[in-house]
Amino acid sequence: MQSTLAAERVHRVRPYLQLARVDHWFKNAFMLFGSLLALFFEPSFFRLGVFPMLAVAFLATCLVASSNYVLNEVLDAPFDREHPVKKHRPAAAEKVRRSIALAEWLALGAAGIGLGCLVHPYFAASALALWTMGIVYNVRPLRTKELPYLDVLSESVNNAIRLLLGWFALIQSEFPPVSLIVAYWMAGAFFMAIKRFAEYRQLGDRKIARRYRRSFAYYTEDRLLVSLFFYAMMGALFTGVFIVRYRLELILILPLVAGFFAYYLRLGLQEDSPVQSPEKLHRETGFVAFSVASGIVFVLLMFTHIPFLYELFNVELAKTPPLWTLGP
């Protein structure tokens, strides 16, 4: 009898756990790039004592992200029913009560931001910005996800916010280089535009696509391809600014970065593309191996000095301070 009751409770609770999309938490690993950047500028933080705080920061980010996922699913339920796969989501399949789901949204957001306060006020402010973007993206009258191009830009700005979260988990007195923040944002926009492209192709029928996502009333395959080319170019240009000013050694990784973007684009052009569900990309073993190898090379180059490169390209590091001081 008790086992039956326990199974029944699990059955009732499971849809609410699915709303939080814990399997998407790996995306928040992108915040660790901000922490790596912080270690580059302040190597003194590279000690065992920072790892507990990083763990708290990561958990806070995950809770805020889950809060946004809950809001997204609740408000998208009528539209997800038009999608061949997303119609099975808990909210779309009417497996959850809206009032309880909204309470879950508020509780997760409050827990994440509250936990962020234990890290630092600037970290908590960044967590609040991440949560607020969830409202901007999903809630009318703004609901930017329904507006062409703004849907991609307002969703991908979360990439830049995650970089700040990783940075403020370690450094609280200074602001990171703006060039890299913009580059990170544009890289996220590139990935999001490919996801839109893959979704648009999978739906096939433009009328169905329009009912599922209003921005698809404007989008075409050509427009989405042109937009992702724009985002890639913007990301590359701002990355170049950062490399020339602060770390010329990273110029050696540019072929790998270009290859990473090209590989992702190739995945996006496939039928039933895996980029529609990034949490399943781990099944693409070649892509994962390439990404890990590129990441290792990136870390090595961040902390390796190669004087010959500066002579070869006739470049001098910027003499002005790279960071902006915050507070008094």
Helices and strands in order, then pairings?
Elements: H1 2-20, H2 31-41, H3 51-80, H4 98-119, H5 121-138, H6 150-168, E1 174-175, H7 178-203, H8 206-212, H9 221-246, H10 254-268, H11 285-302, H12 307-312, E2 324-325
Antiparallel strand pairs: 1-2
Question: Can you describe what's shown?
Answer:
The protein has twelve helices and two strands, in the order ααααααβααααααβ. A two-stranded antiparallel ribbon has the order 1-2. The radius of gyration is 21 Å and the shape is globular.
Count the helices. How many? Answer: 12
Cα shape: globular
Name the helicity range: 55-70%
C-alpha-based Rg, rounded: 21 Å
Poorly predicted residue ranges? none
Would you identify the CATH H-level superfamily of the largest domain?
UbiA prenyltransferase
Q: The CATH topology of the largest domain is what?
A: Tetracycline Repressor, domain 2
Distance between the first and last residues' Cα: 63 Å
What is the average of the pLDDT values? Answer: 89
User: Which percent band covers the strand fraction?
Assistant: under 5%
CATH class of the largest domain: Mainly Alpha
